[in-house]
Amino acid sequence: MGKKYYCSKCEYYHHRGKVYENHKKYKTYPPDEEGGGTDNEDSEKNGVSIMSSTSKATQANGTGLRNINLSGGLFTENIVLRLREDPEKLEIGKIDSFLEKDSEKKPKQFKEERRELYEWCRDKWDSITTKLEDWTEDDIIQKWLIPFFSQFGYELEPFEFGKTKLDSDSPLAGFQIKYQSKGHINPYFHFVGIDEDFEVKIDTNPNKGTHHGVCQQFINRVPEVKWLFLSNGRILRLLTEYYHTYSKGYVEFDLENILANRDVKEFDAM
């Protein structure tokens, strides 16, 4: 791993990855009051994040998200920024009830658990990042994604249809997502290969649809599936019911850059 440097464009430290290489031209000395969400010791004092005035202005203008992409209006950027800066206040981003148990925790307990969770994910990513290209899809699922979600309290099991089954003449006939939370409850999960793009048409999908497209249709046609995580190991995308024809609705986290570049704040927004 190369030596970390402070990026004037992103206003935080880069440690590795594509952004690390591409943003070297923005390398500079950090401001006196460095924040930005990295896990260096100077980024927090007495549990309060210290942000530069530029960072605050960036967030106020709604342009502060680095490794989180929003599409379709499921959440506003302002809400995600607020959640990123003050993650123990989960009520601003509560999704039905699947974050409800976390929102009841005391702030100190929540912060300690989130820190432990981040450190596990960071260390796990560092241990597997050089192996991912050689792993099969099943390796990625068993050695990375299932352990990753288990850290968030989700026990995954193979998906089984409940009350709703797809008709034989359905355009999705023969397709089903891969995993569900134990007990057939939300959220649900679908995993693909490490280099598979969510927006590229796949021959093995129904009607050669994209991974995002078939998952969205599946959610819309199976009422008990309210929330679904789609991931290839590097990117994590959250989908829900969405019926627009010419736009897509999702919240997407760039796991690779969040973990490789030690972006603690955007990790906390997950």
Could you characterize the architecture of this molecule?
- This protein is an alpha+beta fold.
- The protein folds into 2 domains: about 1-65, no CATH class; about 65-270, no CATH class.
- It is about 30% helix and about 15% strand.
- It is built from 9 helices and 12 strands.
- The strands form 3 sheets. A 7-stranded mixed beta sheet has the order 6-12-11-10-9-8-7, sandwiched between helices. It has a 3-stranded antiparallel beta sheet with strand order 2-1-3, with no helix packed on it. A two-stranded antiparallel sheet has the order 4-5.
- Strand 8 (about 180) and strand 9 form a beta hairpin.
- The protein is globular and about 60 Å long.
- Mean pLDDT is about 80; it is low at about 30-65 and about 90-105.
User: How many distinct domains?
Assistant: 2
Coarse morphology: globular
Uncertain stretches of 5 or more adjacent residues: 32-63, 92-103
Please trace the helix and strand order, writing H or E for each element. Answer: EEHEEEHEHHHHEEEHEEEHH
Report how far apart the termini are. 25 Å
Q: Report helical residue fraction.
A: 25-40%
Neighbour order of strands in the largest sheet: 6-12-11-10-9-8-7
Instruction: Indicate the mean pLDDT.
Output: 79
Supply Rg: 19 Å
Query: How many β strands by DSSP?
Result: 12
Q: What structural category do the secondary elements indicate?
A: alpha+beta
Instruction: Assess the beta-strand content as a share of residues.
Output: 15-25%
Helix count, per DSSP?
9
- Major beta sheet summary: 7 strands, mixed
